[in-house]
């Protein structure tokens, strides 16, 4: 017998909220998935229903109606960033598992509130940090945790993407939705999550945000971070060059670097290069898989009770705490302490 929110075949029934570029991409990724099926879509714009119905999907503009639907077990939020906290709290109160695209929230306080609401209501909270789900990244993280690289001293993340032709009134360009610039919310948030996966909570940040090739989109960002572990991280992100993602971890026993061959929307695989003391550089090629699908399937597994969701709540909150500090540092051009249990200090 199927459980609540699951189909008779055992698929987890979800609704996708937000039918922009990424919402449509996620629906495409989940087509014919054995673990999840999209049974309803929701968007504030009625015109989005034309696309949804053409895919054979139910559509509504009423988010509350989605939460009241007993056949739906979870919601996937591909909505503007400033709406995430309100929507997560509503979903949790309705006992719906919720998967939220990055960034989870705009402030550490809101991220912690969302986590606590999901815990209190016994629902799973997933987040769109799909880069953790690359097989190559999982191998790198195992190297870090096993001590193979020794004491981690520095982590580097560089993410670039060609300029996107967005209308001036697109929500992704608005300061309320991208306080650290478009480069922060679209690109740097991923590098930041990987740095936290390696190093734990951040301590202080300094950032430089500039519009070098756009009118005022703040598409170029550089961040220097320190962590409570004592390690450092450098994050450089920009819209302008062709797509590239490089992530490196350097320890006193060796270093490892991951390189993405293509955008996760159409993955082409990855390269892992390692160099250990006393050895030679070694390179391993990884075939393409969908890390977006892997993340959503992990969400479904957690909702079904098959396995815990692999991104810890504390990492979700630490990510937004550092995100908030980077946005403040980019605006003020000062060193900013990352908020933890005590209030952040700026000097």
Describe this structure in words.
The protein is globular. It is of the alpha/beta class. The model is unreliable at 341-347 (pLDDT under 50). The N and C termini lie far apart (59 Å). The protein contains 9 helices and 15 strands. Helix content is 31%, strand content 26%. A hairpin with a 5-residue loop joins strand 13 (270-276) and strand 14 (282-286). The chain has 2 domains: 12-129, Rossmann fold, CATH 3.40.50.720; 131-337, Dihydrodipicolinate Reductase, domain 2 (2-Layer Sandwich), CATH 3.30.360.10. The protein has a 9-stranded mixed sheet with strand order 14-13-12-11-7-10-9-8-15, covered by helices on one side. It has helices spanning 21-29, 48-54, 63-67, 84-93, 108-120, 135-146, 182-199, 291-303, 313-332, and strands at 12-17, 36-42, 58-60, 74-77, 97-100, 125-127, 152-161, 202-210, 220-227, 232-239, 244-251, 254-260, 270-276, 282-286, 336-337. Helix 4 runs parallel beside helix 5 and helix 7 crosses helix 9 (313-332). The longest helix has 20 residues, at 313-332.
């Amino acid at each position: 017998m199927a459980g609540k929110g699951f189909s008779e075949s055992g698929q987890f029934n979800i609704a996708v909220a937000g039918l922009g570029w990424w919402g449509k991409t996620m629906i495409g990724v989940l087509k014919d998935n054995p673990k999840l099926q999209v049974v309803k879509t929701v968007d504030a714009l009625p015109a989005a229903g034309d696309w949804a119905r053409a895919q054979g999907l139910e559509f509504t503009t009423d988010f509350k109606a989605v939460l009241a639907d007993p056949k739906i077990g979870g919601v996937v939020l591909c909505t503007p960033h400033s709406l995430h906290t309100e929507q997560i709290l509503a979903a949790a109160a309705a006992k719906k598992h919720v998967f939220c695209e990055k960034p989870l929230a705009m402030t550490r306080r809101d991220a912690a509130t969302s986590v606590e609401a999901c815990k209190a209501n016994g629902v799973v909270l997933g987040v769109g940090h799909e880069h953790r789900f690359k097989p190559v990244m999982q191998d790198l993280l195992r190297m870090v945790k096993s001590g193979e690289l020794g004491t981690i001293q520095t982590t580097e993340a560089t993410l670039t993407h060609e300029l996107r032709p967005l209308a001036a009134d697109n929500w992704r360009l608005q300061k309320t939705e991208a306080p650290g610039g478009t480069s922060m919310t679209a690109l740097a948030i991923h590098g930041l999550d990987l740095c936290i996966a390696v190093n734990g909570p951040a301590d202080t940040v300094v950032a430089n945000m500039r519009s070098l090739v756009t009118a005022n989109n703040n598409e170029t960002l550089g961040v220097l971070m320190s962590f409570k572990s004592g390690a450092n991280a450098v994050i450089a992100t920009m819209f302008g060059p062709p797509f590239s993602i490089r992530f490196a971890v350097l320890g006193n026993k060796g270093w490892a670097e991951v390189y993405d061959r293509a955008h996760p929307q159409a993955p082409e695989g990855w390269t892992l290069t390692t160099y250990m003391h006393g050895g030679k550089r070694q390179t391993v090629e990884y075939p393409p898989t969908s890390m977006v699908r892997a993340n959503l399937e992990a969400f479904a597994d957690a909702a079904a009770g098959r396995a815990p969701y692999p991104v810890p709540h504390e990492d979700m909150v630490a990510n937004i705490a550092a995100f908030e500090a980077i946005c403040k540092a980019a605006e003020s051009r000062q060193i900013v302490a990352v908020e933890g249990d005590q209030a952040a200090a700026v000097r």
